[in-house]
Structures are given as C-alpha cells and as structure tokens.
Amino acid sequence: MKTTLKLFSLLFFFIAFVSCSNDDGPNLVPVQSKTASNIPAPQTGKQGEPAGGPYTKFSFVTGEVTTSDTDWDIAFRGTSIVVNGGTATGTNDEPTRNGNGGISIQSGTFASITDADGLTFTQDADGAFAIPTGSNNGWYSYNPATHIIAPIPGKVFIIRTHDGKYAKMEIVSYYKDAPVEPNFMTDEYRFYTFNYIYNPNAGETKLTPPVE
C-alpha cells in the first residue's frame, strides 16, 4: 500500500511539474540581428528619363535576395524602396504586391527603437511610396557638390513584413562594400548595405537584439 501511495505521489508531482513548465508560454524563435551587404539595386533610364528595370526583392525570413513572387518583404531599384503591401505607385516594372506589408518611419537611434507595438504603418499607393522618394524626403540626402547619396542619420524604418511579422532597418550605405567616405568617381553605387533586426514570431512586436 505504501509503495502504491509513493508511486502515486511521484506521478502527481511529475504531472504538476510538466503543467507548470507548459504554462511558461510557447517557445519563441530567436530574434535575428544581421547586416545585409551589397544588395544590388540597378535601374535603367538616363537622367531625366523614367526609371525602369526589375526591383531586387529581399526576404527578412531568409535574410537574402529572392526571386519569389510572394515571399518578399521589401524591394530596391535605384533610390526607390517598395514594400510588399498596398498597390503599385505607377512607376515602371514594379513587383506585384500580394502581402500586407507596411512601413513606419521613426526618428531615433537604431538601438533606441525597440518595439513595433502601437505604430502606424503606411503602404505603397498610387503615386506614393511608403518610403518617400527624393533627396531629404525619404531615406537619403544628395550632395550636389560631391554627387554622393548618403543615408539620413536617425531614420529607422519599422517594417511589417508581407506575412505580418516585424523588422527594423537602418540603411548604412548606397555604395558597394559600404566605404566610409564614398567617392562618386571610383565607388560603385546602387548597392544597399543595411542593418536589421527581424522578429520571426507571429504576434510578437519586440525588436531588440538577441541575448548573447
């Protein structure tokens, strides 16, 4: 009898332990903190002509360029950046939007903006990119003396991905290999380097670096 009671007690405590462990919540996939380097953004059309050519599509879930028609989040061509959400803006050769992506432009340091909760997201629309184009209006400034395109400091882009997850991005450079002081005459341009943090967990809005 004592043996039976002892076994029953052990079974009870085991079940209670497992139940408590399950109450800790779902296992979350680690947040990703990465740098994407030399993402090409070629375009056709000379100065004063309409831009053309396909956009280079990027997926945060893979951290790579993709040719998928559906599983992409943002795309680059020249200085234009499109999001997989909304509708075509009216420029040539835009990819078809089939996701629910959006952009929220925030001011601050990359480290200081840590959550997408409560933000308002904008999608591409007829005649307007969610990330505005043009010097000083969107993500860059243009220096007419040096002809250098430089990311505007303190602009952080919070991205709702095509499938409703969240990432944040800061653009580091528009030149191949991200030179500290690019030279218009010698450095190749239309190559994006950007830092990003991506949270792959549905419903999770935190955008802080993973704990080492």
Automatic annotation (TrEMBL):
Coiled coil: none annotated. Residues 1-21 form the signal peptide. Pfam families: HmuY. Keywords: Signal. This is HmuY protein. It comes from Flagellimonas pacifica.
